[in-house]
Amino acid sequence: MLRPSLTLATLLLLSGAALATDSNDVYDELCECKFVPPKLTVPVLIRDFHSSHPDFEYRISEDYDIVTDTLGNDGRPVYKPKTKSYTTTGKANFDQWYRDVPGVNIAITKNLELTEVEPGLWEYHSDHFFPINNEGFGNSFNGRNYHFTLEMHLKFTYVPGTSFTFTGDDDLFLYINNKLAVNIGGVHDALTRTIHLDEMAEQLGIEVGETYNFDLFFAERHTVESNFQFQTTMQLECL
């Protein structure tokens, strides 16, 4: 269970990341995981951006060459070297997505409420996903705040039959055991991906009965829609 005073630096260190010590990694508080059947509330960290950021309101396309297949030692996605991502403008700008940069982004802690829609099946569903309206730098278009990233750091114990389905726009990078399990990069309409961990166990280096990190990174980079939906049989817990 996360304590309200737990910083992101501590959170990532607990998840096995060797995090550099700098002021960008420290936050005053994160919310607790709370389980009140059939609801599970989990903490997320959102960073608000101006629409003028080079990677936002830029090109529109699916883009599967943004990040490498392994989470970085600092617990963040690593920009893919020696390639030209069509919807991003280089490593320096991408590295701002999931790091605090004064004047470029504003970090905001929030909660997501998952619902157990069937025994053992958890869902979060929003086809109107604007969690920081009227916050951060303020709304940018049509009374809504579109330009933000989100990250979620949890854990789960792998049991046979585990699956995860995500539907959303724009970018979604899910790492399990520090390995890229879902890659829906780019700026696009809502796309859906489903993974079955039994089919990916060797690729992800996971074994039944063991506990692994679940690190999810999302970006909403373009008007005019924002979808963020997932279903999973993972029994997600705070670190």
Give your account of this protein's structure.
This protein is mainly beta and 239 residues long. It has one domain. It is 8% helix and 37% strand. The chain is built from 3 helices and 13 strands. Strands 1, 2, 4, 5, 6, 7, 8, 9, 11, 12 and 13 form an 11-stranded antiparallel beta sheet that branches. Strand 4 and strand 5 form a beta hairpin. The longest helix has 8 residues. The radius of gyration is 17 Å and the shape is globular. The termini are close together.
Layout of helices and strands, plus pairs?
Blueprint: H1 8-14, E1 34-36, E2 39-49, E3 61-62, H2 91-94, E4 105-118, E5 121-126, E6 148-157, E7 163-169, E8 171-176, E9 179-184, E10 186-187, E11 191-196, H3 197-204, E12 211-220, E13 227-232
Antiparallel strand pairs: 1-2, 2-4, 2-6, 3-10, 4-5, 5-13, 6-12, 7-11, 7-13, 8-9, 8-12
Q: What keyword list fits this structure?
A:
single chain, mainly beta, 11-stranded antiparallel beta sheet, 13 strands, 37% strand, disordered N terminus
Biggest sheet statistics:
11 strands, antiparallel
Give the proportion of residues in helices: under 10%
The chain-level structural class is: mainly beta
Radius of gyration: 17 Å
Which residues form runs of ≥5 with pLDDT under 50? 1-29
Count of alpha and pi helical runs = 3
Short description:
Keywords: Signal. By secondary structure, the protein is mainly β.
